[in-house]
UniProtKB/TrEMBL annotation:
One BP annotation, GO: lipid metabolic process
Residue positions binding Zn(2+): D261, D466, H470, D508, H509
Cofactor note: Binds 2 Zn(2+) ions.
Cofactors required: Zn(2+); Mg(2+)
Origin: domain of life: Bacteria
UniProt similarity note: Belongs to the alkaline phosphatase family.
Entry keyword set: Magnesium, Metal-binding, Phosphoprotein, Zinc
Protein name in the entry: Alkaline phosphatase
GO molecular function: alkaline phosphatase activity; metal ion binding; phosphoric diester hydrolase activity
Length: 571
């Protein structure tokens, strides 16, 4: 529960806290001339700011108009003047508002200057008290008048909310919370650090009311904490490369390009830490960063980014294989076809999705799906694996591709052009039980292409890292990132066996502005926080493994990848 500390100091007292889910609202009151003013000290009194005008009447209005969602709400009335006379005036004032004192969801709790506990029983049933001690009280009737226990944080810890508690401070804090809970009362620290790290720590320690001057931000953070915290159950066995061909100036025959859609550095970090601190990806030594801006926007979409990687030209957002003048650009699979390469595309998206289609199609807009399906049928690809079979129900796809029903049929096939649909519509996710089908598809495709006894190019997309980034769901980001690593493992294993294969791993862009403020590597727990539901302009990592992999280090534009591939292939 959230306690709005010194709520009256906010630009919009009561309403801001009430609308943003505060369960407790602090009201400092001063009795002067039989009037209860809301102020911290007498010198700051404003004549029109009374407890009735700022709190009691607005709360009544909210109830009458059925505004907001009234959960359990307490007004914590902090008395700044003499206890008994002020409290008596509070009682008389509240009696003027029977609708409020009869509402069982609303409580009025007296804090600050209070009578002695033995006098609590003198006051009406609707008046409760804030007990600021851990000393026991023998009379259970007095305990019934106590709504919560509040203690000063600085009595137990000097922690400022950055980093973590010291061990001795943590012991003191835990003991205080446990003692308060032994009386079966909710607990609050006042004067505690105010920020996300502090809110999370106090929440995890069992503090019932989180003290804050920013109720809206605190509510948003805590109410989404469960959704943003994930305990990983997927695992990618980490493969340690031999490094025998890595960074050597030897011939590159084959290229495997793996694209994690939306897979920025924080996404990779989250997957790594949730996978017990390592991935096959993190074993690689040649690392760089690419800038992802499109030709017409600071923040790219997948179409423009995919096209830049596939063609070597930056273009406008939504473009599939077209330049800024809406003219087709030769892509890698078309370019390599002229040099007798066999090529393939794999994705956990529909095969007509923006990233895979950038490697075989030419359409003005990514939503021109009919044109993209037609382009696949006439493309230079020898293999495709992805979702979206329904897109091809009224086409002659089977006249150019042997479409097989089982993934296991691919590696032994002698067909020149083969395809497999992972689903009729969209491909399911790891959290929906998809399993490590991306790794199996990569393994099958590599065997199929290699059996052609020609040089090959294979693009593999882990598409749903981006999907879950758009939803701000850390469970999907982590599970899809770890699954993507299983496909990377298959590529690295193949490269170690072949010794003439270069593996490149990157992303088209970052999605969601993900940060990972907290977690636990041993327990595989990750907390994610987000700045947007969209893509960002953040640079994304690029990794390479195999001969001449060092040429992919550095910082450069995403369209440079195309020319680097041509360079290492000497084409």
């Amino acid at each position: 529960m959230i306690h709005a500390h010194n709520d009256y100091e906010n630009p919009l007292p009561f309403w801001n806290a009430y609308a943003n889910g505060a369960n407790s609202i602090e009201v400092d009151v001063i009795l002067k001339n039989d009037t209860l003013y809301v102020a911290h000290e007498e010198t700051s009194i404003k004549s029109n700011r009374t407890i009735e005008r700022l709190y009691l009447k607005p709360l009544t209005e909210a109830l009458n108009l059925e505004l907001g969602s009234l959960q359990k709400l307490q007004l914590l009335i902090d008395i700044k003047t003499e206890a008994v006379s002020t409290l008596n005036q509070i009682v008389e004032t509240l009696k003027k508002h029977p609708q409020l004192i009869e509402n069982k969801s609303i409580s009025f709790v007296i804090s600050g200057n209070r009578p002695q506990p033995q006098d609590y029983l003198k006051y009406p049933e609707f008046i409760q008290f804030d007990y600021q001690s851990l000393e026991p009280i023998s009379d259970p009737k007095i305990w019934d008048k106590i709504a919560l226990i509040s203690l000063p944080f600085k009595r137990y810890s000097v922690w400022n909310g950055k980093g973590r508690f010291t061990e001795d401070n943590l012991i003191k804090v835990k003991k205080a919370i446990a003692k308060a809970h032994s009386y079966h009362k909710p607990f609050r620290f006042w004067g505690s650090p105010d920020g996300k790290s502090a809110w999370k720590s106090l929440h995890d320690l069992g503090v019932d009311y989180i003290n804050t001057d920013a109720p809206a931000t605190c509510y948003t953070y805590l109410s989404t904490l469960k959704q943003r915290t994930y305990t990983n159950t997927f695992h990618s066995p980490v493969y340690t490369p031999t490094y025998e061909s890595d960074q050597k100036d030897t011939e590159v025959k084959n290229i495997i390009l793996l694209i994690g859609d939306g897979n920025g550095l924080s996404q990779i970090s989250a997957a790594t830490l949730a996978n017990q601190g390592a991935l096959t990806l993190t074993q690689l030594k040649s690392i760089g960063f690419i800038k992802t801006q499109s030709a017409d926007d600071f923040t790219t979409d997948s179409a423009a980014a995919g096209t830049a990687i596939a063609t070597g030209e930056k273009t406008y957002n939504r473009s599939i294989g077209m330049d800024i003048n809406r003219k087709p650009i030769e892509n890698l699979t078309e370019f390599l076809y002229k040099y007798d390469f066999v090529t393939g595309c794999i994705t956990t998206d529909e095969i007509t999705g923006a990233t895979p289609s950038s490697f075989y199609a030419h359409q003005i807009d990514r939503d021109m799906t009919d044109g993209i399906t037609a382009d696949l049928i006439t493309s230079k690809l020898n293999l495709f694996i992805g979702g979206g079979a329904n897109r091809f129900s009224d086409t002659n796809l089977d006249k150019t591709f042997a479409v097989v029903n089982n993934l296991s049929e691919i590696e032994t096939s002698t067909e020149q052009k083969i395809g497999h649909f992972l689903s009729e519509y969209g491909v399911s996710s790891m959290t929906e039980g998809r399993g490590h089908i991306l790794a199996e598809a990569t393994k099958q495709a590599l065997t199929f292409l290699n059996n052609k006894n020609k040089p090959f190019f294979l693009m593999v997309e882990g598409a749903k890292i981006d999907t879950y980034g758009h939803f701000n769901k850390i469970d999907g980001i982590v599970s899809e990132g770890i699954d993507f690593d299983t496909a990377i493992t298959e590529a690295i294993k193949f490269a170690d066996t072949d010794k003439n294969t270069l593996v490149i791993i990157t992303a088209d862009h970052e999605t969601s502005g993900l940060s990972i403020p907290q977690g636990d590597v041993k327990q595989q727990i990750i907390e994610g926080d987000f700045t947007t539901f969209d893509h960002t302009g953040t640079m994304v990592p690029i990794f390479a493994y195999g001969p001449q992999s060092y040429k992919f280090s550095g910082v450069y534009e995403n369209n440079t990848i195309f020319n680097k591939v041509k360079e290492v292939l000497k084409l």
